[in-house]
Amino acid sequence: MKNGEEVSLTHHEFFTLAYLIQHPGWVFSKEQIYEEVWKENPEHCGAAVANVISQIRRKLGEGYIKTVIGSGYKFEQ
């Protein structure tokens, strides 16, 4: 929810957010997220994870998912 209203998330957005929320403060590389959420070889993940993170931020606002330069992403409360 954002401002008391439900937010619609795609399959990949939901499971990416759920994965990060289950491990608050942990840093995951885009390859780790891709392998967990897409259930595919992360060699070819390209910009898929970055695009999904961007969409989550657009829908929920900044401040929940942090980029850790050179490492990946983490969820912060």
Number of helices: 3
**Beta strands, count:** 2
Radius of gyration: 12 Å
The side-by-side strand order for the widest beta sheet comes to 1-2
Q: Indicate the mean pLDDT.
A: 94
Shape: globular
**Class computed from helices, strands and strand pairing:** mainly alpha
Distance between the termini: 14 Å
Unreliable segments (pLDDT under 50, ≥5 consecutive)?
Answer: none
* Sheet with the most strands, sense and barrel status: 2 strands, antiparallel
Share of helical residues: 40-55%
Strand content: 5-15%
Helices and strands, in order, run as HHHEE
Features of this protein?
77 residues; single chain; two-stranded antiparallel ribbon
Word description of this protein:
This protein has three helices and two strands. With 77 residues, the chain is mainly alpha-helical.
Give a quick summary of the entry.
The protein is 43% helix and 10% strand. By secondary structure, the protein is mainly alpha-helical.
List the topology elements.
Elements: H1 11-21, H2 30-38, H3 48-60, E1 65-68, E2 72-75
Antiparallel strand pairs: 1-2
Helix pairs in contact: 1-2, 1-3
